[in-house]
Amino acid sequence: MTDETILQVKGLRTYFNTDDGVVKAVDGVDFSLRKGETLGIVGESGSGKSVTNLSIMNLIPNPPGKIMGGEVIYHDTDLLKLSDKGIRAIRGNKISMIFQDPMTSLNPFLRISNQMIETIVLHQKLSKSEARAKAIEMLVLAGIPAAEKRIDQYPHQFSGGMRQRVMIAMALSCDPEILIADEPTSALDVTIQAQILDLMKELTSRLGTAVIIITHSLGVVAGMCDTICVMYAGRIVERGSVDIIFEKPMHPYTRGLIKSVPRLDRKNGARLYSIQGQPPNVIDLPDCCPFFPRCEHAMDICKTKYPLVHDDGNEHRVACWLYGREGK
User: Fold this and answer.
1) Is CB count within 10 Å lower at the N or C end of the chain?
2) Residue 306 in 3-state DSSP?
3) What is the average pLDDT value for the chain, to the nearest integer?
4) What is the distance between the alpha carbons of residues 95 and 93, in angstroms, rounded to a whole number?
5) In DSSP terms, which residues pair with 310 in a beta bridge?
């Protein structure tokens, strides 16, 4: 990892129009990604993790969704201002994405060879024979046995773990600078999860790829990430290095997530901690701290104003009135 920033997300807002009102799925998200860095975005279902990264790739279905504002700066280019042709030149080439379910991401009617070669020919300007050789090389790196034969098989002929390996090989086949992995192990059993995570870590380190991992598992980010962003109700409530977040979590929501993880050093029969209540409805959410109904430290100001972002040093930032001037 270097100090060179290759991606900056500033004030990103993505809303969805529904019959019940406007869903503010992403409501002012800011973060940056450095070259070679692995960034984890953590939060409960519905917190806005996946929508944030679909917005970066400009893959929000319109209607009902729309990117309402903000900037996504890749080097010196705002991806949100590119034409359809311009973003297609970036998507799958400079920035690739691994989706949550490999079975629905791969076309069941096309051989693996067709799906991989098409991408490589489009972005790398190679001949079909050269693209096929590159595809086989990537499948070998991804741990697919007998890759020369299996490349001509269909997705249903692969197990879940092998399909995910194919997705990783496909995503990395154009040597992207950034890889976005949306819950890359959620559909797999625990043993295969560990293998896939080790594979991603090895390949991205070898290729120098920066990674954004979307997950609800703190175990995944602890073993994979350099930096963590904790999301709640469409906003990032805490951001810092993985060591700082686990050693000194500041936001009550982050503390709750860490306390709810099973630990080997706890006594047998000890009750597992859980955060009380449910995530808020983000339709027409008032301008206050959305976590206050579930927070053990809620104050009057939490119910009337969204907290300012407090910087605790070492790039550790938290949005909580416990640390704001009026909250002390």
Assistant:
1) C
2) coil
3) 90
4) 6
5) 318
What phi-psi label fits residue 200: left (phi over 0), alpha (psi between -120 and 50 degrees) or beta? alpha
* Tens digits of residue pLDDT in 295-308: 999 999 999 999 99
Residues in CB range of 320: below 8 A, 6 or more apart: 237, 238, 250, 251, 252, 289, 307, 310, 327
Closest CA to 75 of 12, 6, 9, 8: 6
User: Two tokens at 30?
Assistant: 């800011």
Q: Which token pair is 302?
A: 């939490």
* Structure token pair of residue 199: 């594979």
SS3 content of the chain, % helix, strand, coil (to 5): 35, 25, 40
Single-letter residue type at 268? N
C-beta separation of 290 from 280 below 8 A = yes
For tokens 């595809």, what's the residue? Answer: 135
- Show the tokens assigned to 40: 């984890």
Range of lowest pLDDT (12-21, 174-183, 187-196)? 187-196
Which residue is it, tokens 């959305």? 290
Find out whether the peptide bond into 64 is cis, omega within 30 degrees of 0. yes
All structural domains of the chain, each given as residue ranges with its CATH number in brackets, are 5-94+177-272 (3.40.50.300), 106-175 (no CATH)
